[in-house]
Amino acid sequence: MDLDLIRRLSQPADTKVILCVLDGLGGVQGPRGRTELEEANTVHLDRMAEAGSLGRTLPVGHGITPGSGPGHIALFSYDPLEYEIGRGALETTGIGFELGPNDLAARGNLCDLDADGCITDRRAGRLPTEETTKVCEALRQIALPGVEVFVEPVQDQRFVLILRGEGLSAAISDSDPQREGVPPHEVAATSPEGERTADLVRQWVTRAHKILGTRERGNGTLLRGWSKRPDMPPFPDLWKLRAAAVTVYPMYRGVAKLCGMDSIEGAQDFQQQIDLVRKHWDDYDFFFLHYKYTDSAGEDGDFRSKVDAISEFDAMLPGLLDLEPNVVVVTGDHSTPATMAVHSWHPVPLLVWGDNVRRDHLHQFSEPNCAVGEIGTIPAKEVLPLAFAHAGRLAKYGA
Amino acid sequence: MDLDLIRRLSQPADTKVILCVLDGLGGVQGPRGRTELEEANTVHLDRMAEAGSLGRTLPVGHGITPGSGPGHIALFSYDPLEYEIGRGALETTGIGFELGPNDLAARGNLCDLDADGCITDRRAGRLPTEETTKVCEALRQIALPGVEVFVEPVQDQRFVLILRGEGLSAAISDSDPQREGVPPHEVAATSPEGERTADLVRQWVTRAHKILGTRERGNGTLLRGWSKRPDMPPFPDLWKLRAAAVTVYPMYRGVAKLCGMDSIEGAQDFQQQIDLVRKHWDDYDFFFLHYKYTDSAGEDGDFRSKVDAISEFDAMLPGLLDLEPNVVVVTGDHSTPATMAVHSWHPVPLLVWGDNVRRDHLHQFSEPNCAVGEIGTIPAKEVLPLAFAHAGRLAKYGA
């Protein structure tokens, strides 16, 4: 469904919709021939499956493994190939820095350079975060003509560099050659509109390396992934509703904010996320809840922990259902099979529960059932149109 | 998945992928209420189905019956509606003639003309191939300014005419009116860039008809389907791998070569194709194997022979699996139900076996099972992206 059509058909209603994203939910059969979701204790999810419809999402396309950015963008009803969050923007968003429309961000590494200026360690021996924080403070003394400059530590040797000002362009190259034994690249414009920005960045790099030159480790910088915030139509305007993100981790909060959602902050775990939803129940029509632990366990390759993370989510579900939402969607932003210990391309289980569902006589929320469920396998960006239809928030097309 | 995205995400890996195309694989229930695939002895395919995922391909679209060209183009991950192999190019490719980038090809018929120049038989009484071969030799004496000319017999009254030179254009009309009782059309440019080419072809036709004028049968020519080789990005560049086609019939070899694959030649049957794969196992990352006999039997309307062709393929499968490929795909380029005795639009059974598959608890490779399999019904051009994802050859999209 394209955004013009959404804009045209979306309508206000007195209904509440909750989107629960279990990060990396989808799995693959483990040692006992069953997936993480099949092994988990999902008594509440299974009850919802029985009363609801099952299906699967395809976040980007067949065979495409999505990062967290595109995985969420798609669930928020945007085309993840059209609205791409660059690495710089995503990293910046991930530390809670609010990117403005005139900001240009790069992901940075402190690195080690030898006497000839060649890179000897791209990560400066994984410099501790504390040390990187001090280096960032020192780098903040660099001023550039006509723009504001921000240098923010991320983790270990990683930092972000943000330039703020009119007319900045992402059409410039990386300084990071992504290998050692060569000097950093000189940043250059990749098209004419990048000329001025490239010149500013070269000035910054020269002065940064002068400041860092006396250090033993981390005497150089590597910059890559220059990007601005994607210029997406705000979610609340598109859908004519009040939308809130309730997350623990800044990255997911950041992506939701880039899409124009409010953020309700302060939760440290999923129970607290539910409490915040309850507290703000009257203030919003749509709540996005992000649950991280399924993905962390999957990425650790820890099958049992992922099973447990799903079971724990399930145990907390009644707290959400008690609020009597009209529609609840449970899905993931991508699969992270514990057997693979990375994100994967496998379609993601999807459960839509609430008003006007057509049931599919499936009694368990599992990958095999989702593959034959009522909803079918649909692009992730179609999930919210479907949920909002169930909530009476999409008008008829044509007379 | 569009080609830009493939080019961006594809990555080399130390894995082997085999694509087995059983021509015309898909069927429809025959006299005993089961399809050819259901009736066949598929003990090895069924074992692969059990350990792998099933699904179906849609070569071009719902209700669209593909020719062999688009059926294969799609399986090679190209959009068959974007990259169209014209009739002239396909016919030329089918006889093993290697079309260069400056070649323009037409499909030709020898026909019978009466004293007024009107067509009395579009096929010259299906002139024998030998006779057509001699006619082609005679026609080779026609030289045209600034271009090389090739005239090659195909079968019966069919031949191909190929012009080779700079600046030739397919923007010219057919001389074949596709009916009798009228003279052949004069070839004309359909847009300005075709003017010079049309003029060359008119010269060729005039001189050809002068040479053939004294013959009793086959005293005229009909030309249609002017086309150049499709300008597709080479498969090995797109996927960053070494690709080989191992086929018996020149048409399929030709389509693979048009896509930039190498051809390993010399096999007369499928067992020899397997032997060639084994011999060249270290030289390539991807092997395309074409199996013709399912389609020939289907086109003959011979249900039993198609069942046997599938069983024979199945019996040879262990020879491929012994090579320990990472991923094996078994599918067809289209359906050819024996009950119809022609190509059809029915979705085609698909089996993906290998690393990181999510199993679907289906134990037989059959049309009904494929309709409810894990993979779903996907465009044929998404099959290799999926297979290469399983083989670790597609990087993550977005951070």
Please report the two chains with the greatest interface, counting residues with C-beta closer than 8 angstroms to the partner's C-beta.
A-B, 40 and 27 residues
Number of domains of chain A: 2
Rg from alpha-carbon coordinates of chain A: 23 Å
Number of helices of chain A: 14
Beta-strand content of chain A: 15-25%
Topology order of chain A in helix (H) and strand (E) letters = HEHHEHHEEHEEHEHEHEHEHHEEHEH
Quaternary state reads homodimer
- Low-pLDDT segments, ≥5 res of chain A: none
Name of the CATH class of the largest domain in chain A: Alpha Beta
**What CATH architecture of the largest domain in chain A would you give?**
3-Layer(aba) Sandwich
Please summarize the sheet with the most strands of chain A.
8 strands, mixed
- Number of beta-strand segments of chain A: 13
Superfamily (CATH H level) name of the largest domain in chain A = Alkaline Phosphatase, subunit A
Overall form of chain A? globular
